[in-house]
Design brief:
The chain has 263 residues and is of the alpha/beta class. It has a single domain (3-261), classed as TIM Barrel. It contains twelve helices and nine strands. The chain has helices at residues 3-13, 30-39, 62-73, 78-89, 103-109, 111-121, 140-145, 163-167, 190-201, 217-225, 234-241, 246-261, and strands at 18-24, 47-51, 97-101, 125-128, 149-150, 152-154, 174-177, 208-211, 229-232. The protein has a nine-stranded parallel β-sheet with strand order 5-4-3-2-1-9-8-7-6. Helix 8 (163-167) links the parallel strand 6 (152-154) and strand 7. The radius of gyration is 17 Å and the shape is globular. It starts with a helix and ends with a helix.
Length: 263
């Protein structure tokens, strides 16, 4: 079992929904980013999604794109992202970390080398948004053989014909994208999400975590109440981009966590 599997088992045992956060590694700089990431578990975060900065983030809106640009400008790289995970693990060996990004930096590193380094650093799973199931032999299967969860995205356009393919070889959890379009584009609506989660749950035992368009504690509560948990990314990255202090950012995260956990 990975840390992700263990975390969901623990949450299920106490009837609690998962709260997941996304932050871009190295935004706005290494030290500030590491301080925020280190503070996330105490703020109520169950799973950390750590963005891997990339020059062409096609699935992301302006908020995440700018975060990636800030991180890259500050010298962030795949190597330094792995270094950040290692630094985090010096004080926390239980909180799951999911690396979220695009395939190009991983391909450039070399899949075998990357997987060895990722596992050694303390990464538990990956979301690689530009690798479809048809390319599973490229990274998904090797990742799972290395002991890492490979987490897939499903969207409102993932119909019942496509869904089995999306679920194949997926592990850890399924990330349901609540809206069509890019990150940060619209607000998630629990009434729209609920039937989609039910449809997907009929096809899998994996936890269904819902992200995109969740910006307030009430929104986090509403979405978590119809799924196994909620993901918040752009709303937090907005605070980082606005220059808020780590303590201010973590206070905001705690309010979101409280909302999700009250579901």
């Amino acid at each position: 079992m990975t840390r992700i599997d263990t975390k969901f088992a623990e949450l299920n045992a106490i009837g609690k929904k998962a709260f997941v956060t996304y932050v871009m590694a190295g935004d706005p700089n290494y030290d500030t980013s590491l301080e925020v990431v280190k503070g996330l578990p105490a703020a109520g975060v169950d799973i950390i999604e750590l963005g891997l900065p990339f020059t062409d983030p096609m699935a992301d809106g302006p908020t995440i794109q700018l975060a990636g640009q800030r991180a890259l400008k500050a010298g962030m790289s795949l190597e330094k992202t792995l270094e950040m995970v290692r630094d985090f693990r010096l004080g926390d060996d239980t909180t799951p970390i999911v690396l979220m990004g695009y395939y190009n930096p991983i391909y450039s590193r070399g899949v075998t080398q990357f997987l060895e380094e990722a596992k050694s650093a303390g990464i538990d799973g990956m979301i690689v948004v530009d690798l479809p199931p048809e390319e599973d032999d490229e990274l998904c299967i090797p990742a799972q053989k290395a002991g890492l969860n490979f987490i897939r995205l499903a969207t409102p356009t993932t119909d019942n014909k496509r869904l089995p393919k999306v679920l194949s070889n997926t592990s850890g959890f399924l990330y349901y994208v609540s809206i069509t379009g890019i990150t940060g584009a619209a607000a998630a609506d629990a009434s729209d999400v609920a039937p989609e989660v039910a449809r997907i749950k009929a096809a899998t035992d994996l936890p269904i975590i819902v992200g995109f368009g969740i910006r307030t504690p009430q929104n986090a509560h509403d979405i978590a109440s119809v799924a196994d948990g909620a993901v918040v990314g752009s709303a937090i990255v907005d605070k980082i981009g606005a220059g808020k202090s780590p303590s201010e950012i973590l206070a905001f995260v705690k309010s979101l966590a409280d909302g999700a956990h009250s579901a």
